[in-house]
Amino acid sequence: MPPLKTPDQRYLIVRGRLWRASNPALPDAERQRLVDTLMDARRAVKSARQAADDAQLADARRAVDTAKRALGERGPVWWTDGVKDYNRHLVHNSPYADWYGQQAIGD
To answer: 3-state DSSP call for residue 88?
Structure first.
């Protein structure tokens, strides 16, 4: 089952924590290209860790960060209404707490 999303679609909720969702305005083909790039970068992180290659690990982590920023999951927020970013906050310590408490499905 996919993670629960906040009503405004800005966050996924995983184990009670908010994680910024990808920018929904990205065209599907671009989003898929960026997700593929992100997955490749994550595999490179795993490989670098296994090889204990610090330089390769740093490069791979930069690639992960670049892909996540392009997806809108890091860096400047993709929404334009000025609402604060609650990325990585516990949902119970956010404006979504009451809504989350009414959900029948836990995460």
So the answer is: coil
Task: For 55-107, write each residue's pLDDT tens digit.
Answer: 999 999 999 999 999 999 999 999 999 999 999 999 999 999 999 999 865 44
Is position 62 within any domain? yes
Collapsed DSSP state (helix, strand, coil) of residue 19: strand
Q: Quick check: is 94 in a domain? A: no
Residue with tokens 């996924």: 12
Q: What is the pTM of this model?
A: 0.86
Burial class (CB in 10 A: 0-12, 13-18, 19+), 11: buried
- Residues 68 and 38: their CA atoms lie apart, in Å, by 7
Give the separation between CA 86 and CA 96, rounded to whole angstroms.
10
**What sections of the chain are H helices per DSSP?**
28-51, 54-71, 97-101
How many Å apart are CA 107 and CA 104, to the nearest integer? Answer: 10
Residue range(s) defining the domain that contains residue 60: 27-72
Rounded to whole angstroms, the Cα distance separating 80 from 62 reads 26
